[in-house]
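Sequence in, structure out.
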Amino acid sequence: MTTRNRTRPVGALSLFCLAFGATLTLMPSVPAAGLHPAWSELAWRFPIDQWGIGKTFRCRAKDCGHDAELYVRAKIGFCNCTTGVADDEDLERVADFDLFGDRPAALAPGRVIKVRQMTGRARVYSIAAAGAEQRKILTIALNRKCDAVVATVIAGSGDPVDFETAALEFLGSELIARWLGSTPGS
């Protein structure tokens, strides 16, 4: 894996990167025995918008039990600076539903999550993808002050909730911390 656009963090992004200093805590799901999730980077397949480009990662069935993709974006200055991603309404406001389809419908209540020093929520939704039947996605939003990291998990044939632990661990990894600290606006 290579990291592109290595530059120094600036402004709010610098403050955001300070959040990556403690350890991963809450893990609501347990990975299948004998699996060791390994995420490999793919090209970002969406057009550039106000949030720039993000990162896409894939975990193959041999490593995760089923194929899954994880889409991650930094949204600097987009969170409620006082409360962060405090409830399901906040999660839906920062989510990237528009990238994956329309008509999101929550399938269960959201859960509080914590990765390093960032807190947020995770929730499973059903979403209508263009020209396809409804599918489930796992939406994760973490924040540190006014800044957010938004991640979406799409599972091939599995349930995206089965990938929550692997996704949270990966979001807490040094690779993601370096990317957030070295790529302003994307």
